[in-house]
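sanity check both lines:
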Amino acid sequence: MVPEFLIEMLEKQYGENLTKNIIEGYGVKRKVTFRVNTLKANSNDVEKVLEKNGVEYRKVPFYSDAFIIENVRENEIRDLDIYKNGEIYMQSLSSMLPPIILNPKENMDILDMTAAPGGKTTEIAALVENKARITAVEMNKIRAEKLKFNIEKQGASSVYVMEQDARKIDDFFSFDGILLDAPCSGSGTININNPKLERIFTKELIKKSVKTQGELLKKAINILKKGCEMVYSTCSILEEENEEIIEKAIRTGKIEIVEINFQGMEELPKLPTKINGTLCVMPTEGYEGFFVAKLKKL
């Protein structure tokens, strides 16, 4: 059951028709998706393994190494050696977008501010073929251990893990690129079949998330080098956690929007955003609800 206050927030932001579509998206069983870890394997070899095991799949237009599985569930993929060996990484399609939009390059100093469990971190490492210096930050010790495990399993040797609250990173540091996948309410990934939903998804959670998001973005802007770019993303579809956070940062005069544009983007199930050039993905059978903005430091 979707909390009533969330329905009201969605209707105010998106209108009744789109809200119905969003709630419908909450209720569908999401497809199993993964990406090939190109540090250890390639798509052709993975396709052969899938076909040999009777696994039906299709590809996505925006990422040649991403797979949507049509006929089996996640447990059956986890039983395959390609999963056990770290040749593939189970990841939602939406969460693959921020590293692609960041567009990291070799020899860059890159920061992943809230990195655990490491899906986006190891994706960045794969995109640059381990030829950049990546700092992955996680303040929670247990989550940091999970992050380290995934980094090692994926062979992401270019990644250094920093166990710290990202809001307290020393301003002495500076980076050529930053990914801030900020903690959020999860309003894009709600499971309406969760009996505890009304207890865990609250106005207080949104308020707390907004405070943390603002603090993290402020820090990111401080330690991003001038003329360089960063990505802000959340798995929320509420403007309070997305556009309003970005608009406040733009008003400081320190950053500007960089229009998001990449091959295959036109086929994503999109929601309207209040800032031109940003991207909001609608929850569907294939995608989680997700917001992404690209920013350049002035």
User: Anything to note?
Assistant: The two ends are 44 Å apart (CA to CA).
